[in-house]
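Protein modeling request. Please complete all fields; requests missing the sequence field cannot be processed.
Requester role: graduate student
Desired output: 3D structure, token encoding
Chains: 1
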Amino acid sequence: MRPLFLLLFAVCAVGLWLFAEAFLVEPSNLTLVRKTLSIPKLPKEWDGLKIVLMSDFHASKHKGDGKLIRRAIELANRQNADLILLLGDFLKGHKESQAMPMETFFPQLGKLKAEYGVYAVLGNHDRWIGTGRIRQHLENAGIHVLENRAVSFERGGKRLHLAGLTELWPQTHLRFVQRQPEEPLIVMMHEPRNYLKIVSDTTLLVAGHTHGGQVKLPLLGRPGISVRQGGERFAYGLIEETPGKKMFVTSGLGTSLLRVRFNCPPEVVVLTLVK
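Delivered output (275 residues):
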């Protein structure tokens, strides 16, 4: 009986460790992810452009969320970014009553700083809770909301364009962007499946929404990603199904349904574009 007892003890110990790791530790285990992306046609004036991505805050009344968000904002500001891009789903749940109060959350985002500014798109949870109020709070915090519109920046006489897509009716044709073909274009969106719909020549696409599945298991992959979300195909990381058409999908900061993460920690992403 002793070997069986030891086996059961080991199984229980591993199970308790996995439970603690997934539910108590990793949801707050903030990670900084750095990626350098080679962009062959990038003008030398924009060589070294540094972009910080933050997404899927899902800010709730859980005290751990408040601490995580404050740490993420401090970490993002330490990167001395040229641009900070916020990719939607700011509040938790389907109703405002389930979320961190807007008057508490959005002023914290107002502390984010980048040379060319902080820009945002909205996600599906924002639509459920109320895009009008969320958009107003973002703008009051000094954050520019891009909904099927674009802005441009200039460095050394060369322009770079930033476009944002709406979550529900994205104008993936990007005809609202006024640019020359050789000018770099970055497109921010909440839903990564838009990758398939965008036919315009782009420099970089960035998205969130999937949370990376929140759980990544050996052999089993990311069971939290549904087929409707594109499965593993658009779950996380750098994607380049079409040569030259790069997209980065971040796992974001918060959680949905269950406050659980395993082998898929919350993250702040720093992308550096090089020629």
